[in-house]
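User: Here's a chain of 354 residues. Predict its fold as tokens.
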Amino acid sequence: MKEALLYEKLAHEMVHCHLCPHECVIPEGKTGYCGVRKNVEGSLYALTYGKVISIAIDPIEKKPLNHFYPGASAFSIGTFGCNMRCQHCQNWEISHRGATEDGDQLRKLSPEQAVAMAKERNCEVIAYTYNEPSIWFEYILDTSKLARKEGLFNVLVTSGMINPPALKTLLNFTDSYRLDIKGFTEEFYQRLTGSAVLAQVLENALIAFEAGAHIEIITNIIPNWNDSDEQLDGLSRWIVDNLGPDIPWHVTRYHPYCKLREPTTPVETLDRAREIGFKNGLRYIYVGNVPGHPGQNTLCPGCGKTLIDRTGFAIGVNHIVRGCCEFCGCKIGHFRGPDIPIKHHTTPFPEYIL
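Assistant: Prediction complete.
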């Protein structure tokens, strides 16, 4: 165990965790909502520090990130726990489980080992994924600092369920912020995830954008839940108005999983979401979980030609050169490749540590 950051001690051996919007007040011997931060004799400990449940080398497109170093390999790691309880979670076996359950399945992996393994396997990226990375705060902070020094990129694959001061600390070392915006009403968020935190998620998207992190948005479209024209219109308009028309939006196909039993999303619904998003001004909208759909490809907004052809998570061709269309010279907005260095924010955030 490692003593946690971002908490304060209270009377009677209680602790108050400030990491995420739950703001858990935790009695001695208990864990917070996430199941991985425990009060031990009046101090808060991160139970999963240096412990992983899953390690894989993924194409960056699997995160999904389509405008961040296409074709790169991501050293992907995750652990137990989450601070949401999404009814349709695909990784519920690990995310809905606390660190005290079947802990022997967790493998030890120090920050130094994680960075060394990523480099040995020629990965350009370390992705913190599979479960909600914000609850792994201390481990990600230490690992991402080392990764940055070694020339690796750090990617958070996140629901945005984190308090702004904690997010700003991580953003000092985060290159890409791949954010779920699950729907566009607080009622929907409460119903699906157990937490009415849409406003906080949107605020965090703005914080990451203003910090200079590369952002891509994903929305899993669920029939009868978030597939109405009103939700799709509201979310796509918000992205354009607040983050700009070049932010990629991934609309993905839902399949029944975990506790949710709505029917699989019709492809026509995803096509309608794209139509609404394009009408509102978004330039790059991708369809996920539909193999062979043309909406997986990157098209030039200028000449309309296919710039990146994708089959599943594999890239066929890439006609983007120095951030521009190879055919007509049109600039491809919000795109990062080997010949376009990332520009981090010039004034780092202070590290928020209680």
